């Protein structure tokens, strides 16, 4: 299924409010670009559009603070899933934090995995979600479609409850390829979703239907 990569209320109204996108994912960059600097306020605004799920990322790189943030976020609403990056900006792995959050029942999305070793390790921690960054994986020299297939096979063999999320979508073709993969969720920026959904032939057919319907009665 498709989730929206956005913190914009207008984007959520267009794509989530109509049911085209079933959920929403955010991170610090998405929130800052949308001008949403208060995470709690942004969460409330997004949830008003009734997504099935809202994935919100912790903002601290200190594991103690990040754990408290994860608890706080999870308590805001049952639809919230807490994103924890697999590594910090200093390259420190956050497995201990991830396991601690999982142990208290927080639905964790281990995010920012850009290689098979990272994704395989994230799977072994038993989170609710593992996010693979499609284009960044490709930038690192791996075939993202093959990587997701390999991760899914390992998931099915050892940790079948973990759902796979694909992020880092840059082009319309990436959306189609990602949806062909065994991933459960593909997160798409609104500007790409807009272009990907366009089909002039469908609009032409709808125009003909509307023209002909003008002569009909029920």
Order of adjacent strands in the largest pleated sheet: 1-2-3-4-5-6-7-8
Give the proportion of residues in helices. Answer: 40-55%
Query: What percentage of amino acids are in beta strands?
Result: 15-25%
> What average pLDDT do the residues reach?
96
Q: Could you list the spans in which at least 5 consecutive residues all have pLDDT below 50? A: none
Provide the structure class.
Answer: alpha/beta
Largest sheet: 8 strands, parallel, barrel
Write up what this structure looks like.
With 218 residues, this protein is an alpha/beta fold. The chain contains 11 helices and 8 strands. The chain has helices at residues 9-15, 28-33, 39-47, 63-76, 95-103, 116-124, 134-139, 144-158, 172-180, 190-197, 200-213, and strands spanning 2-5, 23-25, 53-57, 80-85, 108-113, 129-133, 163-167, 185-188. An 8-stranded parallel barrel has the order 1-2-3-4-5-6-7-8, surrounded by 8 helices. Helix 6 (116-124) runs parallel beside helix 8 (144-158). The longest helix is centred in the last third of the chain and has 15 residues, at 144-158. The radius of gyration is 19 Å and the shape is globular. The two termini are 36 Å apart.
Keywords:
single chain; 218 residues; alpha/beta; eight-stranded parallel beta barrel; 49% helix
């Amino acid at each position: 299924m498709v989730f929206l990569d956005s913190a914009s209320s207008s984007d959520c109204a267009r794509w989530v409010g109509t049911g085209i996108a079933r959920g929403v994912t955010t991170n610090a960059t998405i929130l800052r670009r949308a001008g949403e600097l208060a995470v709690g306020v942004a969460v409330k605004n997004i949830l008003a559009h009734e997504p099935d799920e809202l994935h919100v990322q912790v903002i601290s790189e200190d594991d103690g603070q990040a754990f408290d943030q994860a608890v706080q976020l999870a308590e805001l609403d049952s639809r919230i899933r807490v994103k924890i990056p697999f590594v910090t900006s200093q390259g420190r792995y956050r497995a201990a934090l991830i396991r601690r959050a999982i142990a208290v029942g927080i639905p964790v999305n281990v995010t920012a995995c850009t290689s098979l070793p990272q994704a395989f390790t994230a799977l072994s921690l038993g989170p609710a979600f593992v996010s693979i960054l499609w284009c960044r994986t490709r930038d690192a020299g791996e075939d993202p479609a093959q990587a997701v297939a390999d991760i899914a096979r390992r998931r099915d063999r050892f940790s079948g409850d973990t759902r796979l999320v694909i992020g880092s979508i840059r082009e319309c073709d990436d959306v189609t390829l990602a949806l062909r993969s065994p991933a459960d969720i593909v997160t798409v920026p609104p500007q790409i979703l807009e272009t990907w959904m366009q089909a002039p032939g469908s609009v032409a057919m709808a125009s003909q239907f509307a023209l002909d319907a003008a002569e009909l009665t029920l």
